[in-house]
Write a structure and sequence with these properties.
The protein has 194 residues and is of the alpha/beta class. The chain has a single domain, classed as Dihydrofolate Reductase, subunit A, CATH 3.40.430. The chain contains seven helices and eight strands, in the order βααβαβαβαβαβββα. An eight-stranded mixed sheet has the order 4-3-2-5-1-6-8-7, sandwiched between helices. A hairpin with a 3-residue loop joins strand 7 and strand 8. The protein is globular, with a radius of gyration of 17 Å.
Length: 194
Amino acid sequence: MLKETNIVIICNEDNVLCEDEILDKLFKDKDFNSTFYNLVRNKVTMLGRKCWNENFNRELFGKICIIMSKTQNHKKIFNGYRETTPIVGGATMLLYADSFDKALAYARRLTINEGDEEKTVFILGGFSVLKQSLDFVDNIYMFQIYSKNHGNKTLKINDNLWHANVLGIFDNFDFIKLIKRSKVLDEFGDPTEN
């Protein structure tokens, strides 16, 4: 059973998602690499084919990668990797799903280790995948970059639905966890009630 579903976004303070040029620089940043890797290590990750092929440093993926694509051409999706072959960074399994719903169904059934209490999935992108995920995720992990150079895709996040915790402040970015307010109320109760 899946414990938590999370998304990871890399954006500026206006929630404009980073383009490839910024991502390339970020993945060379030691603090960013370490923070990102520690977040998704030994977890199930979901991402679209374009993110898999173009954007992400594969060393930073989770233990199990679910790649979503409507294309049936697995060579194009996996770029030479085989589904059962260990890949760079220690991922032990690549799975293909032809829709977001199928990828999420896979994630719900997967566990890394028997008895693992923290069965979480991290949705890494792209833009349409993140948009689809916003309504049902438990947490948003946000890397807020100190740069004016970004893309043209803005992820609309309703601040009234989320409680922000700053997890780290670094030279080039802030690392923030947004927790769904309904989850905070379930766990701690409404502070306005006596």
